[in-house]
Amino acid sequence: xSSTPKTKIYKGQRYVYRYYRCSRNHLHGRAGCTNSKNFKxxxxxxxxxxxxxxLLLQPERLRAGLRRYVEREREQALRNDPxxxxxxxxxxxxxxxxxxxxxxxxxxxxxxxxxxxRERLGGLEETRKTAQSELEAISLRxxxxxxxxxxxxxxxxxxxHRPGGPRGYSSRRExxxxxxx
Length: 181
What we know:
Blueprint: E1 2-10, E2 13-21, H1 23-28, E3 39-40, H2 41-57, H3 59-78, H4 82-108, H5 114-145, H6 155-160
């Protein structure tokens, strides 16, 4: 869309009106674009300014939106490399486990109440479940793709690197060999 001035002359007086319209439609007609609607620039700019002003007056909302945007961009970049993506999710699990331990220590030292502890641990458990389901999705994508990863690791190998080992075993030594033959 581009802002386009439109001039009208009425009783010798020249009036200029500005509209936003699709430049493709303007240049090529309906063959270029089916959007033939014009928007008054003054009205549209006012609506945009109100939206931007609302964001600026609510910085927490702006931060949350930026965080979501950055996270989406990061996820798209990682989707092309399953090993990197798996590593990021593994780090989230490890981070959640560390935070869990810290919260429990805070509760033991009576720095937070048990109610606060329950709330915080609930949030961490959600993060942990999300990360584990993402790791399983990576494994599934690799299984469907027929190849594990560029370095030849199998999906079982990715599971072996999860905290707690594969399928909940406390160490890799206790776990059965899950490597593909």
